[in-house]
Amino acid sequence: MxxxxxxxxxxxxxxxxxxxxxxxEDRVCYAYDARNMTCTPxxxxxxxxxxxxxxxxxxxxxxxxxxxxxxxGTGTTxxxxxxxxxxxxxxxxxxxxxxxxxDNFTAEVEPGVITGDFHRAVEAKxxxxxxxxxxxxxxxxxxxxxxxxxxxxxxxxxxxxxxVLGVEAVLPTGEIxxxxxxxxxxxxxxxxxxxxxxxxxxxxxxxxxxxxxxxxPAATATLxxxxxxxxxxxEAVTRIIASGTLPRCVEYMDEASIVCAQSIADLDxxxxxxxxxxxxxxxxxxxxxxxxxxxxxIVTEAGAMAVEEARNDDEAKRLxxxxxxxxxxxxxxxPDKINExxxxxxxxxxxxxxxxxxxxxxxxLPMVSFGHAGDGNIHFNVxxxxxxxxxxxxxxxxxxxIFDHTLALGGTLSGEHGVGITKRDYIGxxxxxKELELMRGIKKLFxxxxxxxxxxxx
Length: 458
Fold this sequence. Notes:
- The chain has helices spanning 5-15, 24-28, 50-63, 115-123, 141-147, 154-157, 192-196, 230-242, 255-264, 285-301, 313-324, 326-329, 349-363, 389-408, 427-430, 433-446, and strands at residues 20-21, 43-45, 67-70, 87-90, 97-101, 106-109, 127-128, 164-170, 176-180, 205-212, 214-215, 219-227, 249-253, 275-283, 306-309, 336-343, 367-372, 377-384.
- It is of the alpha+beta class.
- A hairpin with a 4-residue loop joins strand 17 and strand 18.
- Helix 8 packs antiparallel against helix 13.
């Protein structure tokens, strides 16, 4: 829906000329996310307070134009693009860390705080915020909350929802609500906080976030483990988890993703290496030494070609930087990427790896997999040229098969990327019609006119 002159005039009163952008050049900059699907909005606004957002949503509710919340736009499912036009509401100017409470291990932040900046701020005070998505250097905490971001450390520490104690948020009607508690326990009423976390900006716009923190682990150590096959690496992961040792990260890369990684930096791998695991352990110094010995023994018995410990923090950071840059390097294999983040039970990883290898042979398309093997979260990518209709049809068939196999193994279609636009057509594979009806009813209750991030999820 195009914005009316009256609505534009009202937006100018809220934002002035500096924080309201209507030129085509400005609007195109906010027309896509990391999925690279283009939907140009009618205007872009930059709030600096909950009151700005409240006035914007009250205006949208009265006038009927869509509003799409957005952080840094690093999402991969089209969740922050203006499918139906309207206004993109960019929260990056709301970027203050309001409080770090070292006595109660909590922090209060605005949604535009960059995740990596927050990590550094709390660690400087001896505290720890575990959620660590690959986009942490640019993604915002508000976006992390909207998508319930995870990252490599989820195997030991959980995901974003496990650290959100409460929020301040603006409803699609313009009303401001506050949910949650500052205490370790609290069971008064329904848990609206957990409902909003992971709702992909379809129920409310979060304006403040109260986060739980942990003590910073005293020591960490990182291992790079090389294998001759992806199957051996997958089996090693199963053995590690079954041993009772819980690393904070267990990441894997298949042969194709190793090629991408090597284009970024030389990983110094042995001849014949077809898969690697990056394993990180933490705790007290003695706990780290014990965990390292246990993990080294397990991967060696599982057939590892080489087990190498990062010699210092800089070397460990270099390994993780390379791992986090694998996804953007995938374009070595094709101009377009279909990126899915399936999750299977950890014990089923070897079965999923075999399925992926079979699909590569059957369809003849470049396929790359890597991800958080410790919690079964596999980032599965098909590289194609979307201008080629045959490749597009083959890719669609691959995704359909991989989703069906994921569900057959007891898994889920998304571990951390959300549904957005790209998984709308598949949501019925996993969620029953009655459950979807309840979800649509919740959306209607929060957003009776359907103006907040419409056409997403359902």
